[in-house]
Amino acid sequence: MNRSYRPRYGVPARSPRQKEKQFEKLRATELYCPKCGRATPVRERLLLVLPEGDKYEYLCVYCGTSLGDKIERGEPKQLVVL
Fold this sequence. Notes:
The chain is mainly beta and about 80 residues long. It contains one helix and four strands.
């Protein structure tokens, strides 16, 4: 018996691109801290403003250790020459 997946009525099917867009602006709430030895809440701090986007750093709320970073890409900025 061949059973294919059918979406429920009223739930639109999503394309693979739409599924990817769900995770474009993912924010971490907890990350593993090697100094504390467990997953801890993190504080997000703006580190740099770059032409390709803003760079953020994740810091442990207990000891302040840097646990990672990310670049959040915004809309491409238009260069206006006068």
